[in-house]
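Moderator note: this is an archived Q&A kept for reference. The question asked for a predicted structure of one protein chain; the sequence and the answer are reproduced below.
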Amino acid sequence: MKSSAKKIASLVFIVLGILLLAGNLILSLNTQKFIRAAEVAKGIVIDTKYGKFHPEIKFTAANHEVVSFRQGGLNKGYNLDEEVEVLYGSGQIKDSRVNDFWALWGMHIIFLVIGLVFLVSGGIKFRYPDSKWLYFNFENQKDR
């Protein structure tokens, strides 16, 4: 692979890393805004049909509306009848989440790590295009 092709490939990694980090920043700001504006309620796990990592939770909002939702994403896992703290948007009661670090921020951390891996590996490969780091030479392999 020529050095210019390696640089183009590394630029693709850099751009993907920047896009992942920028998207993650926007989503993180939205999550932070949600947390600041959210109301808090006590909820209870009413169903674990899809496993303890995707429980269905029921709570009563401040306007006395009973709401149930399925918590997805990363979380510690919940048992049936377990009491949890729920954050919900006052204008959007259906936008409800368990008040747990991993439930709120887990996916952000995963995308942050993936974005950094793309950005750093692309940057290193761009700076040192002929290094053997992140390089597989398929051209010199013999047919089997």
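Archived answer notes: The chain has a mean pLDDT of 87.
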